[in-house]
Structures are given as C-alpha cells and as structure tokens.
Amino acid sequence: MILPTENAPKSLEELKDLLKGDTKVKVAGIDVDGVLRGKIMSKDKFVSAAKSGFGFCSVVFGWDIQDGVYPKELLISNRKNGYRDLLAQIDLSTYRRIPWEDNIPFFLITFLDPDTQKPICACPRGTLKRASEKAKEFGWECIAGVELEYFQFNETPNTLIQKNFTGLEALTPGMHGYSLLRTTLNQDYFHALFDESLKMGIEIESHHTETGPGVFETALAYTQALRIADNATLFKFVAKSLGMKYGVMPSFMAKPWGELPGCSGHLHVSLRDSKGFNVFALSGDEVAAGGRANAKYSDLKWISQEAEWFLGGILEGLTDVMPMLVPTINGYKRLVAGESFWAPNAITYGYDSRAASIRILSPPSVPPSATRFEIRVPGADVQPHLALSTIFFLGLRGIENKITPSSEPISELGEDRSGVKMLATSLEEATATMMREESIARQTLGDEFVDHFGGTRMHEVKKWNAAVTNWELERYMELI
C-alpha cells in the first residue's frame, strides 16, 4: 500500500497536479501544548503560499490550551508586538488527505520568525528540526517510536459540561488488558482507528486494549523522528475525530482516574548512521564476543559505547527537562504512585525493565538492529515534538561529553534506594528546576525556549493554584 505521504509533491508543478479537482486545502501548525491550530485555505491561496509561506496570527503562541491569553509578556506573542503575524512555512512532505472529511488535502506547517526566516524558539516542529540538525553534525539521523495509552468514554463535549466532568461513563467496564473480547465491543470504532490512521499516513505497529475501563494502547511505527512526532500528534486528531463519529470521547489525559493506573506516552529512541546502521547496536565482532568488554555495568554490555554515553546524557539532564516530558499539572499525578503502576518517578535505568525510567532494549531480548532506549517517564499528554527534541539534545550532549551513567542499573540497586534521585512531583517544582540559570535545559534548548515555555508552564501552575476543586469542597466545606 502506498501511503499518502509517500506521494508528497517535490515541486510546485507536482503540487498543482496533486490538487487537480480540489477547491480547498486544510493546514495546521502545532502549539506548545500539542494542539493543532489551523484553517482551510482556497486552493489558489494555498498554492501561492507554498513557496514563500503565509501570515499566521502569533496568538496561537500567546494562548493557553483553553485560548486564555497569557498575562505574562512572553517572547513570541504579546500585547507589545500586537500579536503580529508569524510566517507559516508549508511542509509539502507532510501531505496526506483526511478520509472522513471528503479526502480534503492536508499539510502541516512550521512557524518562522518573519524577520529571520528561522523557526521561532517554541515551535515544536522547528525545535525537533534543530535536534535533528544537531544529530546530522555527527552524520546520524534521529529515529523514534511512540506508544500512547488513552481512556475512552461514552460521552460528548456537551455531556462532559452537563455532567460537570464527573460521573463519566467508560466505554467498557473492568480491567481488560490485551483483551480480544473487549475489542469485539465497539469494534467499528476500534478498527476505524487503525484503518483511518493508515489512510492518513500514520503507520501503526500494534493496537490493543490496556488495563483499565475503556483503555486502548496504540504503538506507532518506528521511523524518522519528525515524522513520528507528527504522526503522534495527528493520531490524537484521528482518535478525537472518529470519536465524534462513533459517540466516543477519547482522552489522552495522563491520570483521569485517581484510583486507576494512568496513561503513558512512552518514547523509543535510537540513532541511525548514513549507511542505515543503528548507532546504538554492537558491531558483529562485539556480538560474537558476547558483548562489549568495556561496558560499565552488565546491563550495558549489549549496547554501543555511543549508546552508553547517550544514556548518561539523558540521566544527567532528566531532572532539568521534566516539563518537556510531563507538561501538565495532571501528568505528575501519574508519577506519584511510582513503580506500583509502572510509572517511574526516579532517575533509574535498566535492561528490559518496565520499572525503570529508561528501559534498555537490546540483545538478547531484541536483535541488535532493534537496540534502543524506551523513555517511560512521559504520560499520554506528552507533546511529542518537544519531548523527543529534549531526549535527543540530552543524548547528543552525553555523546559529546562522554558522560557515563553515574549510578547502578535498577537491577543492582537492592532494597536500599535512599541514594536514588527522585523526579519532580509537581509542574511547579519541575518548571522552577528547568528555569534555573545553570540548568541543562538552558544549555541544550536555549534561553529563549526555556524562558518562553517556562512562562507558559508557570501560567498553568498559577491557574491550578487559584482553582477550587471538588476535592477541597468535599473535604473541608462541612467539617473545617
């Protein structure tokens, strides 16, 4: 099957041919929360903008997730600059069609500074492109995969409001991970998620139920980092759009139920050289010799020296970049339970360990060519472009500085884990750590990005701190 993105136009003439018979085109960019912000354009307007771009209101970087204007004067979009236009650059390689919208053509855009013609500091696609360019300096390509877990509800946007977001009905009852029986229920919706995603150029490796009422998990196919990040964002769009059709409300919140496991957004990462060889994999001679002789710990003997340094870079910088991995107030509630729900809340790593923050996937559990790291900290609310950018920047920094893991793998820690460094338990704590003058986030992502993105996260914190919740009313109203 030829995927739509494989037919992407490479020239203006090819674009015109591709759009014959169409009258309009849908475009969208991605904001810092992962929300698709877009519009429908006439075909003529789109074609004329394909070469040089078009103006797009910068307020999409001045709004929070609910379109509330940030009170802080952030760098990109503010009252002082009048929320001026950004330059929207159309990425022709992202071409696909939306099958449930009469096959309307669809393209993603990257937001550029109109003065410098470079991606603005907080554009998620632009940030990941910067990380990819960094890898190219070594002659490598960033490769990744994304797994998303998500609850489904028999609800609509209207019923959510009518019920005040309480007493919601799950799509199916009970805890049924990997259930073939539960997928028979709502099978049209379940299979449509897979089939319509494929039509949209979003390749899926596996699709099944997870433990929890109405929970699905979808693993998106391993591919080039920018494409997988685009695919992960667009998969959420597919799920939410099809949900409207079938009367289902999927939620990618990290922790919608306090008493149940949360929803993960695991990231798989590796590097590939110009010959297609996995940089994290051992050479044939090392495999034949039974592993790498100079590995610091036995858990590391089946990964390359570069992979060990990449891992060391992630471990060293993890505490300083938590808001890019866990960007919401709710996301930290998934981490509170720790290992009991396989949601790691400490700086740990280990061979094939689902209890660790970073799981090493290498021989003998996978073939050498599939060697990779699984970053298990993010929830389903992850912004994949920013999270992957961060992981690759940290890992490449580790390779540049030859950083090795400073602690033992989780298998060697034993019962006493008093020396293990814990991750932030709140967005406020995580953001304060990220915004420190000496933070590794500033070294890798840059001051402009940290100041802008940090400002958006502190806005979330301020909103949360000012909110009066049902929990507070139930606990204090009568008895305090």
Automatic annotation (TrEMBL):
The keyword ATP-binding applies. GO terms for biological process: biogenic amine metabolic process; glutamine biosynthetic process. Belongs to the glutamine synthetase family. Keywords: ATP-binding, Ligase, Nucleotide-binding. The keyword Nucleotide-binding applies. Residues 124-480 form the GS catalytic domain. This is Glutamine synthetase.
